[in-house]
Amino acid sequence: MPSLDAELLPELDALRAHSRFRERVVTQPQEGAFIERGGRRYLSFASNDYFGLAQFGAAQSMLGAGSSPLVTGYHDALSRLEAALAAAKGTQSALVFGSGYLANLGIIPAIVGKGDLIVADKLCHACMIDGAKLSGAALRRFAHNDMAHLQRLLAVRGEYRRCLILTETVFSMDGDCAPLAALGRIAEQYEALLMTDDAHGFGLIENNPATIQLGTLSKGLGAYGGYVCGSQTLITHLINHARSYIFSTALPASVCEAALASLQHLAHNEALRQKPLMLARRLTQALGLPEAQSPIVPILIGEDAAALAASVALADAGFWVPAIRPPTVPAGTARLRISVTANHTSEQIDALASAMKELLCSI
Length: 363
Ligand SMILES: *Cc1c(COP(=O)(O)O)cnc(C)c1O
Fold this sequence. Notes:
Elements: H1 4-17, E1 27-29, E2 34-37, E3 40-43, H2 69-73, H3 76-89, E4 93-97, H4 100-111, E5 117-121, H5 126-135, E6 138-142, H6 147-153, E7 163-168, H7 180-189, E8 193-197, E9 212-216, E10 226-230, H8 232-241, H9 243-246, H10 253-267, H11 270-287, E11 296-302, H12 304-316, E12 323-324, E13 334-339, H13 346-362
Helix pairs in contact: 1-8, 3-10, 4-5, 11-13
The chain binds pyridoxal-5'-phosphate.
Pyridoxal-5'-phosphate binds at residues 99-101, 125, 127, 168, 172, 197, 199-200, 216, 218, 226.
């Protein structure tokens, strides 16, 4: 199967030939308007930190990046964070965006466009769909996790240049997982590219076959920002083509350090990584539901008003469980969305289970 890298490399060579190739250099802010970059000290006129406020905060760690990564915003904490993300995912390289939304919006149009085909799971997050629309590629949706439907849609694969399959690893409003191994096989069979959004799967998903592995720092890692992991060539291509990367200020060092600290903490703490899923399974067992596949446990209600009423009843009992309604979920599938975390205790899970049982009997 022709790899994406093999297709991207000549384009990158062409950029080099036209003096259009872009590279990042780690840039460290120094006192005043000075920077250090590539082992040299400069007085910088490249920052958008007009009022010098990035260095004004009580802590140096509040430092704003000052400009986009291709100007002088690519700092040491950012480069260490990218290395740690690539190591965590087992890929050659990683690239950090301003947010998960920005990552999707930038990456999809950098990979596909007019004359290409996108096939996306019906339940894909809004920002994947927004990225797909922005790309100008033809967009088709397959029924949630339905591999037979996906293959029927791929029957027209031959009419398009590139083909991109979009899915989430763990679905944000349903808590179930995509069949990644099957998706990987189908992608190979149809010479398509697989791209996954791991916003809710961090630490849960192993052996992801996707060529393009996106995620966010704002959920499991408790920080902020988006990222993508993949081959060195893919990342270099995105640095040169993803508009939401090129034209947006890099994340502040403080945020990168926070994400790095979370990554290291998780890497060394197996028990912590397991805890949310174990507690979620305790809850599904208590409620007689199918075993939880992730820390997200949806309780399907149906009508919007009924879901709201259920949420209010739980709130009265001291539990804040949001009611999720359209357009976030399809009409007629309003639900309570329980998100279990390592901050919960077994006793608290049991208390919620009792309150839920009482509530579900009464509606
Ligand atoms: C939350 C979420 C995003 C957006 O990530 P942000 O970093 O909050 O912008 C993207 N994809 C999925 C599946 C999400 O749940």
